[in-house]
Design goal:
There is one protein chain. The chain contains five helices and no strands. It is mainly α. The longest helix has 11 residues. It is globular and about 30 Å long. It starts with 13 loop residues before the first helix and ends in a 7-residue tail after the last helix.
């Protein structure tokens, strides 16, 4: 069970702090992402990869993170 997971930490890392700036991400979701991906890997991964490794995080939240990390909201 995820409740017994030893990766949950009450100390806030810089990368977790960054992810918590997204209104749709809570500390649990941020730590789940960072447990599955280094921050560098997270910045380079696809939404589908995020969805497969972090199925408990809503798709809209993963899309928002992906869009910001890949600058999808900036006009060209």
């Amino acid at each position: 069970l995820w409740l017994s997971s030893n990766w949950m930490d009450d100390r806030l890392s810089l990368h977790e702090w960054f992810l918590l700036q997204f209104q749709c991400i809570n500390s649990f979701s941020a730590q789940q992402l960072l447990n599955n991906f280094s921050f560098r890997a997270l910045a380079m991964t696809s939404v589908d990869s995020m969805k497969s490794l972090c199925p408990g995080i809503p798709a809209h939240a993963l899309h928002q993170i992906f869009n910001v990390l890949h600058r999808k909201n900036e006009p060209t």
